[in-house]
Amino acid sequence: MNLLVVGATGTLGRQIVRRALDEGHEVQCFIRDFQKAAFLREWGARLIRGSLAQPETIPLALEGVTAVVDAATARPGDGLGIERVDWKGKVSLIQAAKAAGVNRFVFFSILDAEKYPQVPLMDIKRCTEKFLAESGLNYTILRPCGFLQGLISQYAIPILEKQAVWVMGEASPIAYMNTQDIAKFAIKALSTPETVNRIFPLAGSRAWGAYEIIELCERLSGQTAKVSKMSMGLLRGTQRTARFFQWTQDLADRLAFVEVVAGGQPLDAPMDEVYQTFDISPKEITTLEAYLEEYFSRIMKKLKELDYDQRKIRKKKAPF
Ligand SMILES: NC(=O)c1ccc[n+]([C@@H]2O[C@H](COP(=O)([O-])OP(=O)(O)OC[C@H]3O[C@@H](n4cnc5c(N)ncnc54)[C@H](OP(=O)(O)O)[C@@H]3O)[C@@H](O)[C@H]2O)c1
To answer: How far is the CA of 7 from the centre of ligand 1 (A)?
Structure first.
């Protein structure tokens, strides 16, 4: 297939490009900054310049494309915001894909989006799902709940660097999944007719709470975490204040996510039917334990090598 990947430089998007190339697809990527995307070109993908915030750049990127995989979302702090990128940009992308005669459209939403109409990104995801379903395109909507990759900056690095690990009081457990596994589902959808015009949750083997993850990181790293508790009340207050000012609107939209994890309800979903429909075995899916074990063993090995090299240098420098 001739694939257009939108959001190809992102955490998930790059895994989609990797998987698609490995499976022999022709891949082109819709890119804002070519320098940042040089690695995608080295992998064998074609780069097309454009931005979802500039709808006039979209049609050219769709020429000759048979399927679109959209893994884009607004970057916090780049000044565009979710309304412009995740809503208006996606509407333009879907309309342009329909006009270009694209055969398949894979969209990434978020698990339980319909349950949080008060959370701007969740509401936008729900509206985009509806818009896509009514567009006349052959679509597949995938709804992950969290990425294993996010745990490295949230827990593993602060613990290794003896920095504070911030934990929200009564936060919900989340069934994180590896983005490499999510990419498997996205690419498999393109060759699985049973996935056309359907919505699927994507949840890891089980939901993990923050303290369980911290305990696991402590065991694997041999370090003790410095846990700092964030109050939900304070976060809600900050979000309400940030909403007053246009320049903090983006921050307010993101802080609104507190409502999703504040309920205490696990972000998780049954996966049996999903594995069956995609003909993917749950045994192929990375567990959170295996992911963190692999990460820490790699880092601990690197740290030992560094320590050994430094001792060697110190020995060489010593006068006697
Ligand atoms: N992260 C999670 O835990 C999670 C959970 C559930 C669902 N999801 C969904 O999964 C998808 C991928 O998330 P992610 O965390 O991998 O995203 P990410 O790492 O933040 O990457 C976002 C991507 O979107 C691109 N992008 C941003 N603004 C753009 C614009 N104006 N025009 C074109 N491209 C633009 C970025 O390009 P640049 O490199 O140029 O900025 C980047 O490639 C999203 O739809 C997200 O909502 C994520």
So the answer is: 5
Q: What are phi and psi of 239, to 5 degrees?
A: -65, -40
Q: Which helix (H) or strand (E) holds 120?
A: helix 120-133
pLDDT digits (tens, 9 = 90+) for 110-134: 999 999 898 899 999 999 999 999 9
Q: Tell me the CA–centroid distance for residue 231 and ligand 1, in Å.
A: 28
Residue ranges, the chain, pLDDT below 50: none
* Angle 209-212-213 from CA coordinates, rounded to 5°: 90
Using alpha carbons, select from 80, 52, 82, 124 the residue that is nearest to residue 254: 82
Give how far the C-alpha of residue 22 lies from the chain's centroid of Cα atoms, to the nearest Å: 20
Residues enclosing ligand 1, CB less than 6 A? Answer: 7-13, 30, 32-33, 36, 51-53, 71-75, 80, 85, 89, 108, 110, 144, 146-147, 150
**Alpha-carbon dihedral 244, 240, 254, 166, rounded to 10 degrees:** 130
Question: 164-168 and 226-230: which strand pairing?
Answer: parallel
Tell which atom from ligand 1 comes closest to the C-alpha of 36: 39
